Fold Pyridoxamine 5'-phosphate oxidase N-terminal domain-containing protein.
Amino acid sequence: MCAGDPPGPRAVCGGGDAQGPRAVCGGGGLPGPRTYARGRRRARTRASGTGGRGPVASPGMTIDERVRTPARRKSDLLARLERETDIWVATADAHGVPCLVPLWFVWHEESFWLCTRGTNPTGRNLRDGGQTRLALGHTRDVVLVDGEVRAFSAGQVPVAAAEAFTAKTGWDPRTDSPAYAFYQVRPVAVQAWHEERELRGRHLMRDGAWIV
């Protein structure tokens, strides 16, 4: 766990190993299609006893074998951004020590808006590093977002963004504590895929522009 952050997985916040923000979420460490497929087939076999036939989804999630078009992936992504409240936030400090925590978010005017205490590791890393990688949801329904960060105090945050955050989460940090800060994450790259079969065509945004 990243000291001072909200509760979250401890294993992903160590230092010096392969669990850095980019390694945790893919990027340059993304497994090749063959390795990825073998691992998924073994996992399906163990979990379902089906001999590796067909995907296994978590309750409430449906994944079929059809490869989605890029337009469908973008549509699915935008629907998730409206529907979901929690997102994984990966950062690193000036020494490269990684940190990964879940935070509430709202998608507002083509940006993610997050909130956490400005003095905790994630808050400091977002402010000082100016970049993050975000991840949504299940490991078989992957969304990865690389973004540029801008920090705002509770008194500086645009009113419309703060109100959108409050409307979605039911929490207004501006009335809670002055220690809370808001963080705007403008996406510069977006990837989305269902398992190995959708690795091809997973890039939906490059250099801050949608390509589908």
